[in-house]
Every structure is written in C-alpha cells, then in structure tokens.
Design brief:
The chain has 307 residues and is mostly helical. 65% of the residues lie in helices and 0% in strands. Helix 4 packs antiparallel against helix 5 and helix 9 crosses helix 10.
Length: 307
C-alpha cells in the first residue's frame, strides 16, 4: 500500500469503479476492502465520486476495517491517534497499537514510526537502543527514511556506538535510494571532509543540488550560499542564482536565507538596491527572529533618512 506524506494508508487516488455502489451505505455494512477505500476517500476528499474530505469519517472507517483485521487500517488508525486527526490525540494509545503492529505483525511502517516515537519519547519512555532496532527492521523492509535515521544514530551515537564510517555507508545507501535528507547530509560531509572521507566540493554541490530540487529547505539555503561565495570548484559565482535559492529557502522558513536575501536588497549585492523590499523581508520574519527584528528597524531608519 502507498501512504500519503503524513503516513496514512491512501493507496491509489483513483477510486474503484464500484465505489459508487457503496459510498452512501452505512459504514458498518461495508466489508474490509470497501472500508479501506472509503477511509482513503474521506481522508483525501474526492470530488469525482462526490465525497468531501472528512477526517472523522476516515477514522471511523479505518477503525471498523481494523476490527475486521486490516493491518493497513490498524496502522492508519494509530496514526490518527498519534496526530489527533479525526479523533482526540492519544500518543500513548497510538504507540501501544503501533508497537503491536511492529513486533507482532512485522509491519515495516510500524517499525519506522515506533522507532521515531521511541527516539523522541513520544507516548513512551525514550529508548534509543530500542529505537535503533526498529529503524533497522524498517530499513530491511524498504522504508527509505529508516536508513537515513540509522545513519543519524551512528553519527551521533544514539542507541548504538558512534561510528562515522557506518553512518556514511547508511547515508550513502539512503542517498542512492533517493532520500533528500540523506543527500543533504552526505553533501555536507563531502563539503567538510567529515568522517575521514576525502573533501569533494563538487560532489557536495551535486548532492545539495539534488536535495534542493527535491524540496529540502536547508539544501536550498546551501545552494544559495555556494553560488554566493563561489566556493565550489568549477561552479562559477552566480548572485542571481544565489538570490533565487535564498528566495526558495526563505519561503520554506529558513531564517538565515531571509537574512541573506534581505541584505542583498539592502546593499544592492547582485540585485538592484531596494530598501523597501529589504525591510519587507526582514519585517516578515521579525516576530520569529531577533536579528530580523533588529535589521527591520535599521532599514526602516535608513528609509526614513532618505525621505
């Protein structure tokens, strides 16, 4: 089964032709497969079949499918409890249900979520060794982010002895599998030569570029920084591209990108000088960052002095 980005069982977003035959029936009259499909439709909403998004109904359908033995529905029901979607949040009950799916049913996604909850102490006491074990099981089952998280455990010695060589191998494998976070982290290691790997700024740039183009906010910032500094061999300094990447990173709430972008407009560095635009950028983030607040006040004075 495919899952949405937030972990719920959503399968295909194309409803079966038979859904019109049962979509208006009482949920308690549906079989397991029908309940799984109607839950997905209620969770996402689907105008094609005339079903409006209703997460409470989705939870109800997943709960009924769970009672009929659907493993996927049990997982989605537990995720609803974890996040408070369609039902009151209950992290303890969510973990209790997820750990059963992991340890009794060997459900790969449950291994991964159990690991996250154990690592964070969410609904259960923090247990890093147990978390690593479940990351490992999830990775064996093909859950892509689990391999990246194993790398983090090795890199920081969480639940396992610190080992940068093993961390690197995990990041490398996860990056090859397409994980943007692994590409970002591996890129920072190549840039600095961490983990006894030869420093390779071009390889770092390539990995950061892939991660940024896949939507990784910190990688977007790094792309802007590398284009601004011209610090990568064979990659020319390009302030226009730096601005573009800082804009994307700022939109993704990377404060440092907003500061760099605002300063570019304040100083006319690679762009036409525009104090009002600089002020607007700093002001937008001033409630979340003291530096932006201070810069907004400074630029406001500069604008007033020019009147």
């Amino acid at each position: 089964k495919e899952l949405s980005k937030d972990g719920y069982n959503t399968s295909s977003n194309i409803p079966s032709s038979s859904v019109l035959d049962f979509k208006d029936k009482n949920l308690s009259s549906l079989d397991k497969e029908q309940l799984e499909e109607i839950a997905r439709l209620y969770y996402q909403g689907n105008t094609v079949v005339g079903i409006e998004k209703n997460v409470s109904k989705a939870f109800e359908a997943w709960a009924l499918a769970s009672d009929l033995g659907s493993i996927e529905a049990k997982y989605s029901r537990a995720m609803c409890l974890r996040e408070g979607v369609g039902v009151e949040q209950n992290s303890e009950l969510a973990f209790a249900e997820i750990i059963i799916l992991a340890e009794t049913n060997n459900y790969n996604l449950a291994h991964y979520t159990a690991a996250l909850m154990l690592l964070q102490g969410e609904g259960v006491a923090t247990d890093e060794k147990r978390a690593f074990k479940h990351f490992h099981e999830a990775a064996k089952g093909g859950v892509q982010p689990a391999l990246y998280n194993m790398g983090n455990c090795f890199a920081f010695g969480r639940g396992v002895e610190k080992d940068e060589e093993k961390a690197f191998r995990c990041y490398e494998a996860a990056a090859e599998a397409g994980d943007p976070s692994a590409k970002f982290t591996l890129g920072t290691w190549y840039f600095s030569g961490k983990g006894n790997i030869p420093r390779d700024t071009l390889k770092a740039f390539q990995l950061q570029s892939e991660a940024a183009n896949e939507g990784h906010p910190a990688a977007m910032f790094n792309m802007g920084a590398m284009y601004m500094s011209g610090s990568v061999e064979s990659i020319e300094k390009d302030l226009n591209k730096a601005r573009q990447w800082f804009e994307k990173a700022a939109e993704a709430n990377i404060i440092e990108a907003a500061i760099n972008l605002g300063n570019m407009y304040r100083e006319g560095y690679g762009v036409e000088k525009d104090l009002m635009k600089a002020f607007n950028i700093f002001h937008q983030y001033s409630n979340r960052n003291d530096i932006c607040k201070e810069l907004a006040a400074i630029v406001k004075k500069e604008i007033d002095s020019n009147l």
